[in-house]
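Need C-alpha coordinates for this chain, all 64 residues.
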Amino acid sequence: MEFRTERLEIRPFKTSDLQDVFNFYNNDDICRYLLHDKWTQENMKEKFNKKIDKRFNVKFSSSK
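Here are the C-alpha coordinates for all 64 residues:
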Protein backbone atom coordinates (compact mmCIF):
# COMPACT_ATOMS: atom_id res chain seq x y z
CA MET A 1 0.00 0.00 0.00
CA GLU A 2 1.23 3.48 -0.80
CA PHE A 3 0.09 6.86 0.41
CA ARG A 4 1.14 10.22 -1.00
CA THR A 5 0.53 13.83 -0.20
CA GLU A 6 2.26 16.96 -1.37
CA ARG A 7 4.89 16.64 1.37
CA LEU A 8 4.86 12.96 2.32
CA GLU A 9 5.21 9.57 0.68
CA ILE A 10 4.61 6.35 2.59
CA ARG A 11 5.50 3.19 0.73
CA PRO A 12 7.10 -0.20 1.27
CA PHE A 13 10.87 -0.31 1.43
CA LYS A 14 12.77 -0.64 -1.84
CA THR A 15 16.17 -2.27 -2.18
CA SER A 16 17.57 1.15 -3.09
CA ASP A 17 16.60 2.43 0.38
CA LEU A 18 19.33 0.49 2.19
CA GLN A 19 21.64 3.40 3.02
CA ASP A 20 18.80 5.75 3.99
CA VAL A 21 17.22 3.15 6.24
CA PHE A 22 20.61 2.37 7.76
CA ASN A 23 21.14 6.05 8.59
CA PHE A 24 17.86 6.03 10.45
CA TYR A 25 18.40 2.76 12.33
CA ASN A 26 22.01 3.58 13.15
CA ASN A 27 21.11 6.76 15.02
CA ASP A 28 21.36 6.49 18.84
CA ASP A 29 18.72 9.15 19.41
CA ILE A 30 16.21 7.30 17.23
CA CYS A 31 17.04 3.77 18.38
CA ARG A 32 16.52 4.49 22.03
CA TYR A 33 12.79 4.70 21.18
CA LEU A 34 12.77 1.53 19.09
CA LEU A 35 12.47 -2.00 20.39
CA HIS A 36 15.83 -3.16 19.09
CA ASP A 37 19.50 -2.27 19.09
CA LYS A 38 20.90 0.08 16.51
CA TRP A 39 22.19 -1.34 13.26
CA THR A 40 25.89 -1.60 12.49
CA GLN A 41 27.79 -1.71 9.22
CA GLU A 42 28.26 -5.43 9.84
CA ASN A 43 24.58 -6.30 10.28
CA MET A 44 22.79 -3.67 8.18
CA LYS A 45 22.25 -5.90 5.13
CA GLU A 46 20.92 -8.75 7.24
CA LYS A 47 18.56 -6.44 9.15
CA PHE A 48 17.37 -4.72 5.99
CA ASN A 49 16.81 -8.05 4.25
CA LYS A 50 14.50 -9.05 7.07
CA LYS A 51 12.46 -5.91 6.49
CA ILE A 52 12.04 -6.38 2.74
CA ASP A 53 12.20 -10.16 2.42
CA LYS A 54 8.64 -10.74 3.57
CA ARG A 55 7.26 -8.45 0.93
CA PHE A 56 9.58 -8.83 -2.05
CA ASN A 57 11.72 -11.90 -1.39
CA VAL A 58 14.77 -9.85 -2.49
CA LYS A 59 18.17 -10.00 -0.78
CA PHE A 60 21.42 -8.09 -0.95
CA SER A 61 24.57 -10.13 -1.10
CA SER A 62 26.73 -10.28 2.01
CA SER A 63 29.91 -9.61 0.11
CA LYS A 64 31.51 -6.18 0.42
